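On to my pick:
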Amino acid sequence: MANIQAFRGLRYDLSKVGSLSDVVAPPYDVISQDLQDRLYAAHPNNVVRLILNRGDDLAPGETIYDSAAKFFSKWRRDGILREENQAAVYVYHQIFSFEGQEFTRKGFMARVRIEPFGEGSIYPHEETHSKAKEDRFKLNTACQANLSQIFGIYPDTENEIQRILENAIRDKTPLEAVDHLGVVHRMWLVTDAGPIAKAAKLMGTKPVYIADGHHRYETATNIRNGYQEKFNVGPDHPSNYVLMMCVSMFDPGMVILPTHRLFRGVAPTGSSELVAKISKCFQCEAAGTGAHAARPIWQKISAENSQRTMAFYCHADDTWILARLNEQGKSRMREITRQQSDEWRSLGVAILHNLVISDLLGLANLPSPNYVHSIEEVIQGIRLGDTSARDATGQQGSGKPFELSCLVMPATVEHVKQVSENGERMPAKSTYFYPKLLSGLVINPLN
């Protein structure tokens, strides 16, 4: 089960950098080039220079990982980053708005002992890619640190573990940062051995499911293996642990956004043609025309709250089709995904990609779609098209149209738990835990 440990983290010295908001950043994999440039400009010590280095002014033979390591070493030498005087667990709140309602997601950051997937009680839920793992391995090896935290969720119906730590910070003043999306991030240090020990004992009975950071977790496992092979380090060496944000699956602030798809490379297909191809597996109905119809359609899908209900927009005739999986569709899904569990087959994204895109439409080799999370992004994508394919004029709206778009329900934390415990991985982009965790609040040194 989860073995957590307090640690002496590295944190920015605010007397030297000023505002914490100026030196933090979202995870590397959601930073666009424009945001990367903005973060570089925000402060000379912004953590983006570590987690997504641009490679400015590289010396001959140097890589972006060498550049990141030089910044990291210099900031430690200059006291920009300082090590805690004593080991701590870090309580972390994120205050954000979603669909007109304010939420606070609460968790804590600690070192968690690494258990290779399949050998313990830490479970993945999404596939990983070798290129991303190689990138993070080179970076974390060069810096000898966990620069960003893994996001793990655990079952605690009464949120007892978090409550223990909340009581320990009741009279303390938090550190605070506001990110580029307006999310407020607050962090407190817990150094009292009593509540840390209580939390650790309870966590020792819990499994953990990786919500975000699969590549970084597998990278940490590979780094740990390297330390053991090269240096024969003992079981208490920091490389045996990884920095993790732990959040109860039952936390009131747990929000998973949908990840809608905008497809490229599809031959122009009208709604009647789409219905003809999928109607044997779906009950279909025309649901409206125009990009703006996405709003009421999504409200209807959300109200049904079923993984088997989705909607398709056909650019060829500007029409939406609402589609609900029928019994024949369920049977066909079982037939084409025989190796998967019923829980996996029930996922909306699995039904979309395996049954609709690959089987019924015969489009298994499509380019990766554009993934968006809000209905406003869907509407913008439909209206402007694929802006990465704009013509030479660069005019707004000159992007190549997405011929087919799909609204699909997100997986839930219960889906994550079920699929993970079955030893399976969800299709890509099945979940989007919002908001993202900030990098730069605390760093876990491995040396």
Q: What stands out?
A: DSSP finds 15 helices and 21 strands in the chain.
